[in-house]
Structure prediction request, 413 residues.
Amino acid sequence: MKRLLSRVAMAIIPLLAASSAHGHIVGARLGDFYSGALHPLTDLQDVLLWIALGLLAASLGASRSRWLVLVLPLGLIAGLASALDLHREAGGPLTSAVMMVVTGVVLAAGIRINAIVLSLLALVVAVVRGIANAGGIAPETDPTLFGAGVAASGYVAITLVTAAVLAFREYGGAEQSPRWRTIALRACGSWMAAIGLMLGGFALAS
Amino acid sequence: MRITASAAQRRAVSLALLVCSLGMSHNAFAHEQTGIAGGLTSGFMHPLTGLDHLVAMVAVGLWGAQLGAPAIWVLPITFPLVMAVGGVLGVLGIPLPLPELFISLSALVLGAVVAARARWPFAAACAVVAVFAIFHGYAHGAELPRAANPLAYGVGFVVATGLLHLCGIAIGTLTRSPTGQRGVQALGAAIAVLGGYFLVRTLAGVS
Prediction:
């Protein structure tokens, strides 16, 4: 009987001591990674600039655009690091507006910038937006995980946008791509520049 | 202190509410990106719900299609940029003379040139469309600071305007056949009539 009681007790104690199951790894402190990945997607300035960069890069061809897959995430991390260590501040909506206008006008005008200039433009965008995203790091946030999340989000976004636009532009072979596709891309650049102008006007007015 | 049953229940409910609110708390986000959906919707619907804007934008696309290259692709690329300049004037509150009158006039003039199948010189066509684009942008831009999310509002109305041009160009492809050409001209005439109606209302001071 004693043995039976001790066995029942040994079975009950682990059941009582069991904590709730965590299917999601958020509970394992990786939540800061997801916070970082989600943070830029909640801001239209990030989303629009990344799309604009992807459109511009893809309009220049695969050989020039593939550099952005590295430059954008690294630039975001550099921006986050500079905000945390050097206390740099993002220039606000006006800076984003200027970058949107520049990217949009280059695309709309069909200017064939080389890979170095494109990478420099992407680096500036990434560093500025990295600094802006550092505002989402709370005292209890793990900055490494948060930064990794932001960079992963940037990597996925630029890769998907560039790949989709390249597929659209070169569907059926680069030589057989109808002219209206290039015009459609340039019209998108015009839209981006127009949105940037409006944002700049609003930033100046407020 | 004696606690009645109802007071204990209230305390229990308050405690439960406090625990629930703590349990449902989310991570803090530094971005103040509120009202994106509302801003996008209001911006997107602004050119679509204003009939004077809508018909004028479609007429731009129709005229571009009638004129052919390079107007058919220059107009949709340059129009949003010029319109945004007008939008910035509206956002900054810089007054433009008689914006409503020019918007009504734009529908009348653009409808008339489509109806007449006018083959204006490219530079002259661009200049006329640019002037009207500034006034249309001004009207949209003046509403931007009051939007739930001004950036989303800007995205909405720029995209809606571009899609209206696209509609006009798509309808304008009918000009490849003689019957389609007459249909497009009839549509231009209808736009001009609407523009005339709006112009009379504006001159009469009816909002």
Notes: Chain A touches chain B through 33 residues (CB under 8 Å). Residues 32-205 of chain A form one domain. Residues 55 and 162 of chain A are 6 Å apart (CA to CA).
